[in-house]
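Researcher: Good morning. I'm working through a list of sequences from a screen, and I'd like to move beyond sequence-only analysis. For each chain I'm collecting a predicted structure so we can compare shapes side by side. This is the next one on the list. No need for commentary yet; just the structure.
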Amino acid sequence: MSRRLIVLLLAALPLVAQKRPPSDNYIYDQVRIRLSADVEVKGANLEIAVKEGVVTIKGFVETEKARQKAEKIARKVKGVRSVVNELKVDTTRARTA
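Model: Good morning. C-alpha cells for this chain:
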C-alpha cells in the first residue's frame, strides 16, 4: 500500500510544481521578447522592470496606440499581476515615409 502512495506522490509532483507562479525573471524575459517582436510597439529600447509580478514599462513609443498595445501585451504574459505603464508618446520618433 505504501508503495502505491509513493508512486502517486511522485506522479503528482510535476503538477504541484506547475502551480507556482512564474518568477520575475521569466516574466521579464517574456515581456521583453513579446514587446521586441511587435512591429507596432518596437519595444527593443523600452525599459522593463518586474517586481513580484508587477511589470513597469518606461520609454518612448511613436503612437498612443503603441502605448496601449504595449500594456496589453505585457498583461497577457502568464504571472503578470499588473502593469504600470509609464510610456510616453513621442511623435518625432515616427518613421518618415
